[in-house]
Every structure is written in structure tokens, then in C-alpha cells.
Amino acid sequence: MPRFIRPSPSCAAWLAAVLLAGCATPAPPPPPARHVPQVAEMMSAIRAAGERESSVIDVTPLGEPGVTALQDAAHADTSAGRYADAAAKLDQALKLSPDSPGLLQDRAEIALRLQDFGAAESLARRSWSLGPKLGPLCARNWQTVAELRQHADDSAGAAAARKGVGECHKGAVPRY
User: Looking at the 3D structure of the chain, how many domains does it have?
Assistant: First the structure.
């Protein structure tokens, strides 16, 4: 009569584990990492939106000399990478002219550079609400909102803001 070798309990457990491992489904691959735009990328997109907007209408109100001097100094600070100094100068200018759409957008862009994203979006939206709703400033307003919504992983909000960028354009009246 043939003799069968009875496996030990630990050997049986190991054999069962090997057999079950062959039946297991592999884990699904992780979802692709979403691209979170960096501040420099966002600023580049905002500037480009304003530069490529070629509406027939471009409203640029005359500035007060004191406000203009502060704004120019803030632009110099921005160029030198001194964003906190630029913010302070723009805050001073906004005390003198609190409803200036251009100042509000400049301050929104500095807030973005300082990674104060909530303030940046709020300032850009306020600039748009007070501004001409056409032309380069309008495009910068909406592109700021689009970049911030994209950064917040709000695809619907980013798409709506990009639509706003397109609505800033006013084409020329056809002449025949």
C-alpha cells in the first residue's frame, strides 16, 4: 500500500497562500498626478492673456500722480522680486484710490506671487466688477481667476473663467 506524506499545517498554509496569490487581481494603477500650476506659470498666463487681447476698446483711465508714483515703484519692486514691498506700495495706492480696477488687478497679481490665493481671486473679481469688462485688463482679471480655480482643482470654475477671458474681446465693426 502506498504511503502518502501528509503536509504540515504551516506547509499547507504556505501552499494555499501561493495558490490564492495567483488568483488575486492586480491593484489598479494610480491615477495620473494632476498638474498643479506653479506661480510663475500662472503669472505668465495672466500676462499673456492681457498682451494678446486686442480689443478695439482699451479703457485706461488717467491716474492720480501720487497713485501713479506708488504704482511705478511697486512695478520696480516686482521686477526686483521684492513682492512684499510691492504689496505695501500698492496697498498705499489703494488707500488713495480704492476703486481703481488697474490697481486692484496689480495687487491681485502680487497676492498671487505671495501665494495668498484667496486674496488674489477676490481682488481680481473686484477689479473686473469695477472695470470696463473689455480689453486687456478684463482678460487679466479672468485669466487670474482661471489660474486660481485650476490651482484649486476646480475644473468647472476654471472653464467658466476661461470663457470670461474670451468675452473680454470686442472686435472692430466691419466696414464695407
Answer: 1
